[in-house]
Design a protein that fits this description.
By secondary structure, the chain is mainly α. It has one domain. It is 54% helix and 0% strand. The chain is built from nine helices and no strands. α3 (51-67) packs antiparallel against α6 (112-135). The two termini are 40 Å apart. The model is unreliable at 1-14 (pLDDT under 50).
């Protein structure tokens, strides 16, 4: 996930990570997957985005609200002091918001919804690009380290919710189908990597074709 955009933990990464894990665990339970199923398969099939994108969106909306405060209010002076500290290179809340917007090449606007949508859209685009690149990353050559999603990518190239989530109503059938797609099964093509078996030698012992 692209938290490298953020220089010094403005989102309190520990708390965000914990909440993100709870969301991931909920998706796994909903789909009947185990804890070792790849996150990218969960995101891809459900078309869910990481939680940090929603946080950054709300940060942007709150920034707009702060910029509209009256100059007689205490909050206005807090904002000004925060911005002065940010101008001096101190990692304040304003510094981090501006850093993210600059990294995303988002122009400052004075419309709350437009600004938030612009940031959200670019974060989502960047996440999907990284998701696609991870699916097609074949730089690792060792048998037990090769891309676990190499089978998944043969029938998954678009980041969108898959129809089977709505059409397969039986939980066990839907779970088994999802396990096969996301390589969360115990077929030799997957578990063979733990024994360093070459990919072309991972032949099914039940259907030896």
């Amino acid at each position: 996930m692209n938290l490298v955009l953020i220089p010094k933990d403005p989102l309190r990464t520990t708390n965000v990570s914990r909440f993100s894990k709870k969301i991931i665990n909920f998706l796994r339970r909903m789909l009947g997957l185990n804890n070792k199923s790849p996150n990218d398969a969960l995101y891809g099939d459900t078309s869910r985005y990481p939680f940090y994108i929603e946080i950054v969106k709300r940060m942007t909306m709150y920034e707009y609200k702060l910029n509209k405060t009256d100059d007689s209010s205490l909050l206005y002076h807090v904002r000004i002091e925060n911005e002065n500290m940010a101008d001096n290179g101190i990692h304040t809340w304003s510094y981090n918001v501006n850093y993210i917007k600059k990294a995303l090449n988002c122009n400052h606007t004075y419309k709350r919804n437009k600004n938030a949508k612009q940031v959200t859209l670019k974060l989502r685009e960047r996440f999907v690009d990284n998701w696609y690149n991870r699916l097609h990353n074949d730089t690792r050559t060792k048998a037990n380290e090769r891309n676990k999603l190499r089978t998944y990518r043969t029938f998954k190239n678009i980041f969108k919710q898959e129809p089977y989530l709505d059409t397969i109503l039986d939980f066990r059938m839907r779970s088994n189908y999802c396990k096969f797609r996301s390589i969360a099964h115990k077929l030799l093509i997957e578990i063979g990597r733990h024994s360093n078996i070459d990919l072309n030698k991972r032949i099914c012992k039940v259907f030896d074709w």
